Amino acid sequence: MLTAIIEKVSGIPYEQFLQECIFKPIQLKNTGLDNGRTVVKNLATGHSVWKEVIQTEFVDMSIPQGAYGLYSTAEDLCKWAMSLKDGTLLGEQLLKKMFTSYLGGYGYGWFIGDSSRQASIRVI
After folding, report:
1. Is 113 helix (H, G, I), strand (E, B) or coil?
2. Which residue, 9, 57, 76, 86, is most buried by CB atoms nearer than 10 A?
3. Distances from the Cα of 18 to the Cαs of 1, 23, 97, in angstroms?
4. What are the start-end ranges of the E strands in the chain?
5. Closest C-alpha to 62, from 25, 37, 40, 31
6. d(CA 29, CA 115)
């Protein structure tokens, strides 16, 4: 639903919105949306254990849209986290809303809880 809202409001496809508004501004060069058609160089594949280690079955990643389907590297994830921390990606007001606990410990896209007297945040 959120993907459709982003496309309607921005007037551009979801993948283009991510590239222009998030990935390029904070220089995420190895992050993208797996559309199921583009060959992504060095993209890891999933594995499973069923009596032995096997490669997982193909999943068409163009179907889920905003639910999942992003790929990234550890370096880009670090850049993303730092851009949140320093306010580059979102301003201070939006960041505060994002990490404020609303309905039962749920923030704007995050579960927010208290563990051992330190706030714990888990991406969903």
Report:
1. strand
2. 76
3. 16, 6, 21
4. 32-33, 47-50, 52-55, 70-71, 110-115, 118-123
5. 37
6. 34
